[in-house]
Sequence to fold (259 residues):
Amino acid sequence: SCKLYIMSKLNKTELFKKALMLHNEGKLDDADDICLSVLKNDKDNFAANYLHGCILSDKSKFQEAATYLKKALISNPDNYEVNNNLGIVYKNLKEMDEAEKYFLKAISIDKKNFQAYFNCANLYADIHKYDSSVNFFKKTIEHNNNFPEAYQRLGEIFQEKYRIDRNKEHLNKSIESFNFAISSETSYTISSFKPDTTLLSLGLSNLWLGNHTEANKFFNKVASTNNTNQQVLTEYIEKHLSDIKSMCTLIPHEYEQLT
Fold:
């Protein structure tokens, strides 16, 4: 579920504070009722259109979500969060050119925010533009070097590059990236990323390099982890390098930005 920035318009009324609180508690319908009640009398309200669009996106109603997020964009075209979330919506709709346009717009608005770089890097990976993907993951890390998901995804892209040209230097770079993911000071924040996946990735790169002892070490570590289950292993095998993640705009309350 996509947590939202609290914007100034949301902060000005207890109504929107309540809607945001409900949204972040996962009570989407209750939060949406507030948005819809506002839109009934003020169809151009920025905050209501934005929050309603995000709720529709949370419910995987991406075409409808795009409609309301674009309405929010009309009144605030240079809003980072709306552009970034529109990129995610269009990526889910497989409209990759539109998704790229909004991610790049978000980046142009705030060049130091890592999230749109990360999303655009995953977009490029989806369409097999691996060199661009590598560059954008490196940009992500440049602006947030304690984001293990970026290191994990960068390592996976190097594995993909190896599968194409069999250049083992890609595998060495992948191992370096995975080790950075493991040593990161912060834990994974995107629920679909699992630490065991990084260990499996390290095992795979070492296996491809012929380092069987190292590979077995990582595979055995996964097998001996108490919280490891068959589902994690199955997902890794079946969806290896193809389950691309996106980062919604999410900021803890202590880092709120008012726009």
The chain has a mean pLDDT of 85. The CA atoms of residues 64 and 117 lie 25 Å apart.
